[in-house]
Amino acid sequence: MDRSTVQQLPETTAIPVEPGRSLVQRTLFAGPASWVSVDLYSKVNAGVARRRRNELRLDAGAIVHTNSYFGRFEASYWQRWTTATTVRVQVTVQGDAEGAVLVRASDIGSHERTVTVAHVEGGGTVTLDAPIDKFLDGGAMWLEFRAVDGTLTFTDVRWTVAEDDTDRPVTEHRPTAIAICTFNRADDCANTVASLAADPQVLEIIDAVYVTDQGTDAVETRELFTETAAKLGDKLHYLRQPNLGGAGGFSRGMFEVTGRESHANILLMDDDVRVEPETVLRLTALANHATSPILVGAQMLYLYNPDYLLVSAERCNIDTLHAGLPADEWCLQDESVIEEVQERRIDAQYNAWWSCLVPAEVVREIGLPMPYFFQWDDIEYGLRARERGFPTVTMPGAAVWHADFYWKDGDDFGHYFSIRNGLITSSLRSGFDIKALSGDLRRRVGHALVGMQYGFAYTTLEAIEAFLEGPDALADGGQAALARIRQERSRFPETVKHGVAEIPNGAPTRRAVGRLKPGKEDQVLAKRVVQQATGRIERGPVVVPYEDSFWWHVSLFDNAYVTDASQTGVRVRRRDPELAKELGKRAVRVFRRFHAEAPAVRDAFRAAQPQLTSRENWARLYGV
Prior knowledge:
CATH architecture of the largest domain: Alpha-Beta Complex
Family: Belongs to the glycosyltransferase 2 family.
Number of domains: 3
Domain Galactofuranosyltransferase-2 C-terminal: 447-622
Largest sheet: 8 strands, mixed
Shape: globular
CATH topology of the largest domain: Spore Coat Polysaccharide Biosynthesis Protein SpsA, Chain A
GO molecular function, one term: glycosyltransferase activity
Organism: Speluncibacter jeojiensis
EC number: 2.4.-.-
């Protein structure tokens, strides 16, 4: 798929809402573009149906339901987090035939039931009320449409709840400001902003769009952005600043929003996502009706496999610096959500900032993000918010399409920031198990050395030493660290991607046989070290597919052409015993220092966090 292609949204109109009620969801029957499967929105049970974005036309005998990813009303999340006790569904019907609209529901065990039915005789408006009960641990509601003896058309389907009477203002008084961070993705960013502006109903609840451009290829030079700017008018704020990474770009939007009392919600959004505008409406609605402030995140669908879900909700292990883990065993992960739906309510630990809404009062209470530049900024912020009583909810049926992580090779400069910032995050939280952290990082370095990823091992050690520098390592927001680590990594040949033509003719392909048994990691690592020291490895060039590039497999060779995750080239790994020995000795020194100095560094970061996350510090970095 050409990601630079402009996403053309179908025309929609703003759906009127009854006084005293808040629009919390629309039922849409098809996606925002032709590359999105219509079955993510609605499914045909019987007969002939024509499904358009905001319109469903049924021939006689046809049945369509919306028990689908975007078609469900996530009742479990509404019962758990909001004051709403009843949801009202209103549908505009055209035609002179008989039919029906049913509200259907499921429970935690995927058992289905009918909640209420409205029989249709000709055109008009159908209204159904359904209690939001019996869903605390799981389950959702959806609609079923039937045409009996003729053609019926259903349009303008809206789900509303009564405006609550809590101290927190409701939707009309709590608009959402979009904060987009971009760096040299001008076409993608222009497309994202245009998609948001293309939906009138969503545009009504957006009172500002902040685009923080940190690149050299300016978004403002794109014709589409100029056209969209005219549509957004004074809602659009285009900001230029030095490259401070994702943390600096997103924090700038938060900085601007919380400096203006009129804003209530800040929706952080990547520049390169494909947007489902309905997601903005659903995130805003849940946040605004929550009994107390919560962070509400969207799920991530794969851009190249648009019906596949990354994971239902995420957690991290800060003692081993592993993030992106399923929040619990009931999560859907790397699965198509056309056939599978998430019935259980799953509690997230944090939500990545491909799309995550943060109420302004949360920012005012806990501060701005850490000046990490890149990696772990969203995780640290979610953990910090949770500790202060502001949990994160990752909402099914609210999603954006983002480039599949599978296509990104982890051996790049981002690994430096991932390790450094992960260590800082771990130090800021309770625990900070130095022994566990050290053990895991030692293994990573060992795996890299036997797998001929010397640049990766070097990057890991550099990141650990950067952490040991303490808060001063974050003084410039990461600009110097980025330039330095990129330059230093270039010394290692295997960090460079080569063209496919460089693969030697006749080099055999070596696939991994079997899998590493749980608990045998250290034993296999020791075995590989001995094998390499005694020369018991395969000589000559071999080809290793990316799917087989496990450290315990690549370490069996002395020259491997490993497919890059992007599938556009190869990384050439060659055994260098002297370099491995040099890096091994350095690792001993680094980990000895880590054990000795980490407790003091932990205390320094905890003491410095209020200053590092302050408006004054970020204003200095922005140059404001």
